[in-house]
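Good day; I would like, with your permission, to put a structural problem before you. A protein sequence and the structure tokens that stand for its backbone fold form the material at issue. The record follows directly beneath this note:
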Amino acid sequence: MLPQRLRRHEKRASWHSRRREAIRALRAQGRYGPGLREVLPALVVVAVVVCGIVAGLAVAYRVLGTGALAGGLALLAVITAAMVRHNRPLARRRLGYYTPEEIADLDVDGLALAVSRMLRRDGWRALARPDAQGQPWVSARDRLGRRLEAAFRPVAEPLPDEETPTRAARSAGSGPHLRLVVHRGTFSRRDVQWARRQGGVQLIDGSRLRRWAHGTPLHRLPEVP
């Protein structure tokens, strides 16, 4: 009996260990949602606010009658509508939709976050994080297992050939299937020729970026001329 219990205990411990490792891997890829500890404070606040509103309406109804209850409900509806209008742009951006003005106002870190959201909108599992040099970087993977990486450069910064591995230098399967270079300005003819020589490099200039942010899927964007 004791060996059987020991084996069951070892199986449970092994299962928990595998589960923790799987969760760590999913979080590293940006595919695992927030934990209970992260959302619990917000849930408590929401519960307290809702209970307070209900209690306040009940007291108003008992003390002042139906008129106070109707007035409280009307005020609550106005406040709710105002909050929805105020938070609508935030909800839209979280879904991966940005206006041209919002794209123009982003810094490079914000642009990396926006690109990761737009990739998720297009069906990729994307994660924005710094690269080895501390520069903004986005890595993504789709349902077919294809990998994508996105790098960012500000306006008027050169695109040196030596900073990105050439097509010949990458062994098969060692690099991403697609690399994006995101730039809110315009690319030079030299940049376009460089990308074509590399293979698997897609340039996202300001015009394409705005169309992508508006809702056009990445694979339907026109090529940079």
In short: Helices lie at 2-28, 36-64, 66-94, 100-105, 108-121, 189-198, 206-214.
